[in-house]
Amino acid sequence: MEIFENQINAVKFRSTNYIWNQLKLNSPWSIGYVSTLIEARDFMTKEEWKKHYYRSGEERLRKIDELCTPEQKEALLDFTKATPSLPKELKELNFSYGRTEEELEERGKYMYEKIVEQGNKQKVTLAECVYSVKFRVMAETWNGIVARERNTIKTIGQFFPTFSFKKTEGERDYQYGIDYELFEEDELVCAVQIKPMSYKKGFSKEIIKAKKANEAKNQKYKEEYQADVLYVYSNSKGVITNDDVFAEIKQRAMLKSAFVQQ
């Protein structure tokens, strides 16, 4: 399956990671539950997905114009901070839809201004900031979820042909930090989080912070569902690098089976 290739300098791109997360431009309030949007239908090509995300953003703006007062519209369009006091059905306009190309460009300009304020040591340009925002929102979602996750689940399915796999919806993914739930005969075996090796080996401030946040989310899932969250490290072709995870999944399936039989 074709993936997006990053066209800007890798060092410059990585240098924007911190500000991207710090400004919470990656939050569902800013860009929607992107993973849910991409899983809502089957896209034949990456360009089809890209167009769908933008069209969804246009639909969001039409609905905001139709349903909102000027004050509510202003709150929804302010991507720099969420407004919890809005009615749930209005907040869903931010969570359940994409954004237009112009809106992503606006986020890129905002990120560029903040980078300049902090000195811009890597000499990142405005155009590179805009590109980075678009790449993270649409390209990384496609590359990560479609290519890596789907191919990885196919690999796991070859080892566990009796299992069924349930893709986690956006809100649950955000709440528990899981990608798929694994079932055998309708019994929950475990959940998995599918990541690239760069996540496992990474020790930057951003990755350490992300790991701590995911640990807390995973622990919450374990407490509520009495099931572990296992990490699967793979590439976009679905090749799994931590082979021991198969034994871990098998062990949890056996424990579940023994518990059900009691």
Keywords:
4-stranded mixed β-sheet, globular, alpha+beta, 2 domains, 262 residues, 62% helix, 4 strands
Q: Compute the separation of the termini in Å.
A: 45 Å
Question: In what order do the strands lie side by side in the largest sheet?
Answer: 1-2-3-4
Major sheet size, sense and barrel closure: 4 strands, mixed
- Mean pLDDT across the residues is 92
Helix content: 55-70%
Our count of helices gives 13
> What are the secondary-structure elements, in order, as H or E?
HHHHHHHHHEHEEHHEH
What does this entry look like structurally?
The protein has 262 residues and is of the alpha+beta class. The chain has a 4-stranded mixed β-sheet with strand order 1-2-3-4. The termini are far apart. The model has no long low-confidence stretch (mean pLDDT 92). The chain folds into 2 domains: 10-146, no CATH class; 160-261, no CATH class. It has helices at residues 10-15, 17-22, 28-31, 34-39, 46-67, 70-77, 88-95, 101-117, 126-159, 170-176, 197-201, 205-225, 244-261, and strands at 163-167, 180-184, 187-195, 229-233. 62% of the residues lie in helices and 9% in strands. The protein has 13 helices and 4 strands.
